[in-house]
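hey so u asked for the seq, here:
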Amino acid sequence: MTDQARAATLEALVGVAVRLAAAERLAPPSADPALRAIADAAAAALHVVAASIALYEAAEDRLVFRAAAGPHGDGVIGLAIAPHEGIAGYVFSTGQPLAIADVAADPRFERQTAERTGYVPRSLLAVPLVDGEGIIGVMEWLDRADGAPFDLVDLEVATRVAAAATATARAMRLEQDAGRLLVRVLGALGRETDPPQSDAVEALVAEVAGQLADNDALWRLADRIGQLRDADPDDVDLAVDWLDALLDRTRRRGRSGRRARA
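ran it, structure tokens below
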């Protein structure tokens, strides 16, 4: 590797590192054990035989079950289905929660898929994992232990648990996107006939980070912060002052909201 190529690679790594540091400060990453803990809490909250969390993987165009709990939950982990397949796919694609008392009578139910997990439920509750950025997955609860159908109280509890799962899953996506960012930037550098100059490397890193921002506003903000590292100190101070003003406005809105609800 030439000195110029080494310098370009180092510049790319620094650019990626700055963005990752900014992104991690904005949303500390989590891990699958956190999802498992939420699944455990979900199963206990509704007293069901199984609860599971499926996340949408865009690269594979599949819903992948990443965590589960309950005596009949573990068999679903790793299962991947089309984002429109079965009841989970319906909830993901429409954003509508479903409570089904008799899944066998529902045409959306995929019995063969259920059999692959080792457990075929009688009843099911499914809620989308959704926030301001969109739908990223689905949570499911199978069969209340008392045999009763799921009711409106169950749906309310499930929606609150799903909100916690969504926040955790968003943080996990940061870890996944970090790997993609690094691989794609270094891969693009390797395809260059002539090692690019510093400005070109920075533009490349920003372009790839910008592509991640299409799916997550977090990366759009992290990319902008990353680009400030070479800015004039006065311009950085101006940006910090603007962010401080925005944070102060957000805090005041939060206090006003709490007073209004009191």
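The helical segments are 3-26, 32-46, 86-94, 111-117, 152-191, 198-213, 217-227, 233-261. The radius of gyration is 22 Å.
lmk if thats what u needed
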